[in-house]
Specification:
- The chain has about 120 residues and is mainly alpha-helical.
- It has 5 helices and no strands.
- It is globular, with a radius of gyration of 14 Å.
- This is DUF4259 domain-containing protein.
Length: about 120
């Protein structure tokens, strides 16, 4: 039995990855409508990179559950999605060797939340 997933760690990280994927898609959509030098492009890249960080923490054989644990993602703002993702990091056992880079994800999420607030999300 995978001891890290016994407490739902991988499922929590999978949810974080889903939230960040949706947030990145929304920010990139807004950036497509903005001017080429809009700070939305930087935010979109940052959210995309955070999504990649979260996904990289998951085991190679991890599959998202079939039932959608996070319904109505499209109805949430990027700031709401980022905030929810950050909140989901709080119970993660970041002291475990498999999650050694999880602390950087938390720091990056906090930076992205601050940046999103600054951009009016």
């Amino acid at each position: 039995m995978d001891t890290l997933n016994a407490d739902g760690t991988w499922d929590c990280l999978g949810s974080i990855a889903q939230l960040l994927h949706q947030a990145a898609a929304q920010v990139w959509s807004d950036a497509d409508e903005a001017t080429p030098n809009s700070p939305l492009h930087d935010l979109g890249l940052g959210v995309y990179l955070a999504h990649s960080q979260a996904s990289a923490l998951l085991p190679d054989d991890y599959e998202l559950p079939d039932d959608d644990p996070l319904p109505n993602l499209e109805e949430r703002t990027p700031l709401q999605l980022l905030t929810e993702a950050e909140e989901l990091t709080r119970p993660l056992p970041l002291h475990q060797p498999d999650l050694v880079h999880g602390s950087q994800l938390v720091v990056d999420l906090c930076d992205l939340i601050r940046e999103a607030r600054g951009l009016g999300y």
